[in-house]
Each structure stands twice: as C-alpha cells, then as structure tokens.
C-alpha cells in the first residue's frame, strides 16, 4: 500500500442547530453551513480537497467546558479534489479504500481550555480502520440566538499520517 499523509483536516462548523435548552446544549452539525477540508501532498505541492457528506453532534456545557463532547462522521466516498480521476484513485485500496472503510470518525475524550474561546480537544480519529489519538485546535466562534439557536466552531488539526 502506498503511504498516505493527510496534512490538515480543518472543519468549520458554522450554524450548528441547537436541540436542547438546558445547562448542557446539544448542537447538530449543519452540513449546509459547514465544511470539511483537507490538503494532501501527492508529489511536490499540496492539493486541497473536501468531503461533502458528514454529520455529528457537539454537546456544550458553557459553565464546565471540560465536559464538552464532539462526535463526527465523514463519508469517505464524498471526497472532492476537483479532479474526478484523482477522486476515484483516492477511493481505491491505494489510499482510503472507501469500500472497505466507508467512514472517518472522531470522538472526543478531553476538552482542555487553552485561551478565551480556545480549546485543545483530544480524541480518537479512526481512518482506514486505524484509530489513533489526535488533538484538534478548536475555536468557539460564538452563539447566535434565533431560528433554533446556532453556534459556530472552527476546528483544525496538525495532521494524521498513515503508513502501510
């Protein structure tokens, strides 16, 4: 199998929909107002791409942010690098093996406040059937009342490397 390196996996979760009104708030990722992007380096330059199908929830305890949780799932088959031939190749066993491993998942284990509205979120990332701990940088963009209540987050990772 060829080596695969995912350099970054930023995730913008804008306009999450709110589903409970209590001390603990649960938001559902709104795929219409959110995006999952990445870059790969197949040879000498980075190529941007995205996944167009994803879902998840974020549970927020504003008084105790260390109790926050996030779970997200990305459908590998929704990869889009603006090149159909490359996308088809990325879905093969040479890279993602989308038939055998149709999803990428992340489940948080710890939220650590690192600044005003900033967190290191550590959890398990499962990609290509392999689960590894990763720490994501999360920024709270804010909460907006009205229309079912909304929250915005920006999530970024330093990278994930799969060799094999």
Helices, strands, pairings?
Blueprint (H helix, E strand, L loop, with lengths): L3 E5 L2 E8 L5 E5 L5 E7 L6 E5 L2 E8 L7 E7 L3 E2 L3 H7 L12 E13 L2 E10 L2 E15 L5 E8 L2 E3 L2
Antiparallel strand pairs: 1-4, 1-13, 2-3, 2-4, 2-12, 3-6, 4-5, 5-8, 6-7, 7-9, 9-10, 10-11, 11-12
Main features:
single chain; 164 residues; mainly beta; Lipocalin; eight-stranded antiparallel beta barrel; 1 helix; 4% helix; elongated; disordered N terminus; disordered C terminus
**Shape assignment:** elongated
Q: What is the level 1 CATH name?
A: Mainly Beta
Record field, number of beta strands:
13
- The CATH superfamily is identified as Lipid/polyisoprenoid-binding, YceI-like
Structural class: mainly beta
- Give the integer mean of the pLDDT values: 83
Question: Could you say what the CATH architecture is?
Answer: Beta Barrel
Q: Number of DSSP helices?
A: 1
How would you sum up this structure, described in words?
With 164 residues, this protein is mostly beta strands. It has one domain (4-162): Lipid/polyisoprenoid-binding, YceI-like (Lipocalin), CATH 2.40.128. 4% of the residues lie in helices and 59% in strands. The chain is built from 1 helix and 13 strands; from the N terminus they run E-E-E-E-E-E-E-E-H-E-E-E-E-E. The chain has one helix at 84-90; strands at residues 4-8, 11-18, 24-28, 34-40, 47-51, 54-61, 69-75, 79-80, 103-115, 118-127, 130-144, 150-157, 160-162. The protein has an 8-stranded antiparallel β-barrel. Strand 10 (118-127) and strand 11 form a beta hairpin. It is elongated and about 45 Å long. The termini are close together. The model is unreliable at 1-21 and 160-164 (pLDDT under 50).
